[in-house]
C-alpha cells in the first residue's frame, strides 16, 4: 500500500488550534500553503509535547557557534498568529509523530502518521505488516526556524487555555462545578 503524504515544504500557515469548549476540545494541527489545507487531530498531550520539543531543538541550535541558522530566541512579532483555525475537515488522527532538523534548508521537520483504528485493523489486507498499514497516510511539514518558534508559542498558549486546575487536588475544574478529592496524608 503506497503512503499518502500531505507534504508542505514552505507552509504559509502552520498552527495548533481547538474546536469545542474547554474540557471537550479537540486539538488540530492545521497547515496551509496557497489553497492546500490539511487538518489532523491531535491529543492535548501530543500538542504540548510537540511545542516543548520544537523549543528544545531551536534552543539547542542557538548554541551552535555563531547561531549560523539565525534561530530567534523568541517569537518574531511578524510571525505571531492568533487567528482561529480555518474550517476544519479532519484528514486523520495522529498517532506516531517525529521531529527532526534539516540543516540544508534550516527547517524543523515534523512528521505525523495516521493512527491505526483498532476497529478497522482486522479489515487490513494481511499481506501488509502492521508498520506498513500504520504508515498509509502521513503529514510532512517543514518549518523555517521563525515559524517553528511561533508555532511552539501559540501551541503552548492553546494548551494552557483549557480548564483551570484546582489548587488543592490538581484536577481540572469543570464549569458545572468541582468536587475536590484531596488525597489523605
Key structural traits:
3 helices, Secreted effector protein pipB2 fold, alpha/beta, 22% helix, 185 residues
What does this protein structure show overall?
It is a single chain. The chain has 185 residues and is an alpha/beta fold. The protein has one domain: Secreted effector protein pipB2 fold, CATH 3.30.2450. It is 22% helix and 30% strand. It has 3 helices and 7 strands. The protein has helices at 44-62, 130-134, 145-160, and strands at residues 4-8, 13-19, 26-33, 36-42, 90-102, 107-114, 137-144. Strands 1-7-6-5-4-3-2 form a 7-stranded mixed sheet. Strand 3 and strand 4 form a beta hairpin. The longest helix has 19 residues, at 44-62. It is globular. 25% of the residues are buried. Residues 120-129 and 131-135 have low confidence and may be disordered.
Layout: helices, strands, pairs:
Elements (H helix, E strand, L loop, with lengths): L3 E5 L4 E7 L6 E8 L2 E7 L1 H19 L27 E13 L4 E8 L15 H5 L2 E8 H16 L25
Parallel strand pairs: 1-7, 4-5
Antiparallel strand pairs: 2-3, 3-4, 5-6, 6-7
